[in-house]
From TrEMBL:
Keywords: Acyltransferase, Iron, Metal-binding, Transferase, tRNA processing
Gene3D superfamilies named in the record: 3.30.420.40
Coiled coil residues, start to end: none
Leader peptide range in chain numbering: none
GO molecular-function terms, A-Z: metal ion binding; tRNA N(6)-L-threonylcarbamoyladenine synthase activity
Protein name: N(6)-L-threonylcarbamoyladenine synthase
Pfam family, one: TsaD
Gcp-like domain mapped to chain residues: 35-142
Reaction equations catalysed: L-threonylcarbamoyladenylate + adenosine(37) in tRNA = N(6)-L-threonylcarbamoyladenosine(37) in tRNA + AMP + H(+)
BP GO annotations: tRNA threonylcarbamoyladenosine modification
EC number: 2.3.1.234
EC class: transferase
């Protein structure tokens, strides 16, 4: 039985963690614009110690897979994969769009904030749509429920991960909706002379 789940997320301007121990839920959100890579593991260790647990006590790892900041998503997904491998437990990826509408009746439209006055939108019904990027002022954005707080988001990620843990077969992967802002150089690589 899955009774102890640690979920975390670094895809936006915070480090967030949620620990589920049976029916107890502990949430911690540390706002930060940068430095999540250095902050994440000590924060998770603190959450475990404060609840009298060790890494070996965990039954599953949950992780927010985005959409969000490219580097932030990679930080948490890499950490989740590494922890799951080392602990011999499943790692379950949960998108922010899924977490946004967790517990709501279907059909429902999810939205999460995106850069430059846009939102990511996805419809959840019998068939789940592909997420798209739209202006925040668009009509489709107006029909979606309001964006939830970071504390609720990480709790929903943990709850979904706990429910999926017995059935998960694939490793978590980043969920990107748009292409990266950075691109490889167009010029050929320099020739190194002997």
């Amino acid at each position: 039985m899955i009774s102890k789940v640690l979920a975390f997320d670094t895809a936006t301007a915070h480090c967030a963690a949620c620990l589920i121990i049976d029916d107890k839920i502990v949430v911690r959100v540390d706002p930060m614009a940068k430095g999540q890579a250095e902050h994440l593991m000590p924060m998770l260790e603190d959450v475990l110690v404060e609840n009298n647990l060790t890494w070996a006590d965990l039954d599953a790892i949950g992780v927010g897979t985005g959409p969000g900041n490219f580097t932030g998503i990679r930080i948490s997904v890499s950490a989740a994969r590494g922890l799951a491998l080392g602990l011999g437990v499943p790692a379950i990826g949960v998108t922010h769009l899924e977490a946004q509408v967790h517990g709501l009746a279907r059909p429902v439209v999810a939205q999460v904030a995106a850069p430059r006055d846009h939102v990511y939108i996805q419809t959840f019904a019998d068939i789940i749509s592909t997420a798209v990027l739209v202006p925040a002022a668009s009509d489709v954005a107006k029909i979606a429920p309001p964006i939830i707080a970071a504390e609720d988001m990480i709790q929903h990620i943990a709850l979904i991960a706990r429910d999926r843990a017995p059935h998960v077969t694939e490793r978590p992967a980043p969920y990107y909706v748009r292409a990266a802002d950075a691109a490889p150089p167009r010029d050929a690589a320099p020739v190194i002379l002997p």
